[in-house]
Design brief:
Elements lengths: L11 H4 L3 H26 L6 E5 L5 H9 L4 E6 L2 H10 L1 H6 L2 E5 L12 E7 L8 H11 E13 L15 H13 L2 E11 L2 E10 L8
Helix pairs in contact: 2-3
Length: 217
């Protein structure tokens, strides 16, 4: 499905951090992924009272940004690493205690939420680890309300191939595959935003759960 791209990727530590190595990796993720988190939140543009889900929140920086962007809203999150769930709860402990942020252990292919529960969903730099991306995107579409927005942020390969993460970034074929996956899940691609960030060229794919098209099945 993808040429010279990162998917399907073996999970390993990047896909499911654990132990001492996972803790160190969490610090790297917090540093390197947070500019992508900022871009994803900007593209998602949640309203102040929105309910938003982050898929694969890692150390929890994106959850914190979402909570700031939706100060009267509710921020849910799922990650399949117990270590990252713990880290996200520590990072967002005040919001967790108040009930505004709720990180939990779960998988993207079986989201533990009711239909149309969310105004928005975002996933930053973890799509490459989804074993069945179309099935996962159908789950995302299921929990989005009609008109709800999904942002999938990835690392894109730079034209010069000189950025730090180009070796594992999505090339043109990989990005085309992601567009096809969104289409196959019944989501409507509305925009693609590219931005040169520290160490990485980021691409945010902005899609919508639309009544114009039934969920893929």
């Amino acid at each position: 499905m993808m040429s010279n791209g990162p998917k399907p990727a073996s999970l390993g530590q990047p896909g499911r951090p654990s132990g001492v190595v996972g803790r160190l990796l969490g610090h790297v993720m917090a540093r390197d992924n947070d500019p992508m988190n900022a871009l994803a939140v900007e593209c998602l543009a949640p309203g102040p009272t929105d309910r938003v889900l982050e898929v694969g929140f890692g150390p929890g920086c994106g959850l914190a940004r979402l909570a700031a962007a939706a100060p009267q809203g509710r921020i849910d999150g799922i990650d399949h690493s117990e270590l990252m769930v713990e880290a996200a709860r520590r990072r967002n402990w005040r919001a967790v205690e108040s009930g505004r942020v709720a990180p939990r252990l779960a998988n993207v292919d079986a989201l533990p939420y009711e239909d149309a529960a969310f105004d928005g969903v975002m996933a930053v730099n973890n799509h490459q680890f989804w074993p069945e991306p179309v099935a996962a995107l159908r789950e995302v579409a299921r929990v989005l309300r009609s008109g709800g927005r999904l942002v999938v942020a990835i690392r894109a390969r730079s034209p010069e191939g000189r950025l730090r993460y180009d070796g594992i970034a999505y090339d043109g074929a990989a990005q085309a595959a992601l567009r096809a996956e969104l289409e196959g899940a019944g989501l409507v691609l509305r925009d693609e935003v590219r931005r040169l960030l520290p160490r990485v060229l980021a691409a945010a794919f902005v899609a919508e759960r639309s009544e114009e098209r039934p969920l893929g099945g």
